[in-house]
Amino acid sequence: MTTRTTPDAPGPHRLDPQTGTAFELRAGQVLRVVDPMGEQVSDLTAFSRDDPREWLSSGRSIDYADTISLTAGHVLYSNRSRPMFTIVSDDVGRHDFLYTPCSPETFKIIYNHEGEHPSCFGNLAEHLGRFGIAPDAIPTTFNIFMNVSVAPDGRLRIDPPASKPGDAIELRAEMDLIVGLTACSAELSNNGSFKPIDFEIRPPREGCDLGLM
Amino acid sequence: MTTRTTPDAPGPHRLDPQTGTAFELRAGQVLRVVDPMGEQVSDLTAFSRDDPREWLSSGRSIDYADTISLTAGHVLYSNRSRPMFTIVSDDVGRHDFLYTPCSPETFKIIYNHEGEHPSCFGNLAEHLGRFGIAPDAIPTTFNIFMNVSVAPDGRLRIDPPASKPGDAIELRAEMDLIVGLTACSAELSNNGSFKPIDFEIRPPREGCDLGLM
């Protein structure tokens, strides 16, 4: 149910539908995540390569940005309040940082589905396990292209992703990272069909800041 | 800056302003958290007593409730998708599960405050440490009485708590827990002044369900 993709090369790499991977990303490198067919979510998480007890924190990131709508220019923080990523470009501007990755329990509790079902949690757990990261350590993921809105009464609504074929987001690593990435397995998040996710690792660019990427 | 409160007795206990504590709560026991003076936030987190790698998950709880506005009747889930608490009564109905506990970095990044400042993170880290729980393991807290709203564009707004003097929330433990609890130290969350938080541990009640509490 998962690919064995390990980006030894910068890519582009393809994650087949309902699969995931994990890889190292060096400080300064840029992770480009592309939705090749449109309307497909990709769950992202990260840990410090030097000390995986430092993890990507939705709460810290939302707190410091003062918004749940993170896009180009925003920084994603760790639980230690240190920058892990900067979003340097974003074609879509709709991503989610509230939901945990879909898991076997998600499909049981939300979808009333019994039996086996691929899940982002399962895919992340399998691939991050190669780096010694336990399933229990997986936090709320940054759900790229997931289209979530909050009603005035607090209720959550999931709409089809706003991403069109070829739309991308680029995140610059602000420290050496272990990254987990999926092509999401949840029906509702992807408008009912499962598509691949492409990604690429671009080298640091000297003298380039946000405006020049 | 913190009290040494450890509830050997059911209480009521008082957390002095800008302090915190940690304690065990048995399955079936009800934790009653009271805002004695009004407009005061209390950050709550929990870990399984049997295996502290299982922790209170904002993402799972929000996902399964389909709302960020958790109140009486809602279940708070662990990272393993198991119920940790059920909210059995709630006088206020406004709590937050998006923000991480205020920390020394919060006061630097958000408030531009240099030097020492009491924080919920510091108080939780100190008291949970007595149970062998590391600071890095502290997740997004359930911020009781914290009044957060999300604008249509995703921006977050913190208003004074809606809690009046004596308002309370009651949470029934659904497994044996180690609980961390604070009287919040962040100016903005508490309408600019720091007040105590009271709490009490009530025994399991035979034959009582949600409607009877």
TrEMBL record, chains A, B:
The record's listing under InterPro entries reads: DUF1989
DUF1989 domain sequence ranges: 14-178
One short Pfam family name for this protein? DUF1989
Q: What is the superkingdom listed in this entry's lineage?
A: Bacteria
Checking PANTHER family in the record gives: RE64534P
> What is this protein's record name?
DUF1989 domain-containing protein
